[in-house]
Amino acid sequence: MPVPRKIIIDTDPGQDDAVAILLALGSSELDILGITAVAGNVPLKLTENNARKICELAGRPDIKVYSGAIRPLIRELVTAEEVHGKTGLNGPDLPELTMKLQEQHAVDYLVETLMREEAGTITLCPLGPLTNVALALIREPRIAPRIKEIVLMGGGFFEGGNVTPAAEFNIYVDPHAADVVFRSGVPIVMMPLDVTHKALTTTKRIDAFRKLGTKVGLATAQMLEFFERYDEGKYGTDGGPLHDPCVIAYLLKPELFQGRHCNVTVETSSELTMGMTVIDWWGVTKRPKNAMVMRDIDHDGFFALLVERLGRL
Ligand code: RIB
Ligand code: CA
């Protein structure tokens, strides 16, 4: 058995973040050093709670959860209660929290861990706005060459945006943080809407979680049934896109995904296209290729992996 891959999940739960965290917790190939909460889908007070609720749901109160940035670097916080509900985890009835939050600030935790652990051994997995990751890179630029890879959910190009015609939510909320990350020189794997919109939580797929007959399976089905209703209404599809678990699935089975190495540049000036990820898919510029941009997914294989791993919890 190879040495488990060390990861830190940065997250704004969010039902899809929750399923990503459960996938990671159900996979012994991964060693979750810590989870850092960021403001995004709902305010920080809720995302820091929700991250712990999911760890307790999975029977993992040992996981260390840190609280991070309460707002984006420059812009005002924009949240998405219309998608995720008031709590950010609407759907299941999760028990009251008992897990404690770690004292240390998430950004200090990121810097200290990356400076202490062997260089090139930690993968960062951002599932929300990139504020914490950008702040860590600004606070201690020496961490950049020490990060093995950043595998993130965010952005979109051929699929357009989901919060404006041009921008996807995670990037739109903190475009300046995203700009810092995409210019950092750290190897990036990007899961944009172009790939996540091909992973739909159809009725059959949600039933497969419920048929696990476990509290994790039931909670997952209830979370996804709540989460998908907004996108089903918007896109007229059976099911909604399951964004964040694509990040963890890539770590476990990269062969599920296809993409290409491109330049990705973030719009931070125009209000019309603020937060747009301009992906040079056809290589028409001389801009440096800074991200492996995923565009295709074996969605049956993706959901089979999810059901199998969540079934272990
Ligand atoms: O646009 C989808 C992304 O925004 C997902 O990460 C979802 O959880 C929200 O954070
Ligand atoms: Ca998220």
TrEMBL record:
One of the record's GO molecular function terms: purine nucleosidase activity
Record-linked InterPro entries: I/U_nuclsd_hydro_CS, Inosine/uridine_hydrolase_dom, IUNH, Ribo_hydro-like
Keyword Hydrolase: yes
Domain Inosine/uridine-preferring nucleoside hydrolase: 7-303
EC numbers: 3.2.2.1
CDD domains reported for this sequence: nuc_hydro_IU_UC_XIUA
Domain of life: Bacteria
Pfam family, any one: IU_nuc_hydro
Protein keywords: Glycosidase, Hydrolase
Protein name per Swiss-Prot or TrEMBL: Purine nucleosidase
Native organism: Aminobacter ciceronei
Organismal lineage: Bacteria, Pseudomonadati, Pseudomonadota, Alphaproteobacteria, Hyphomicrobiales
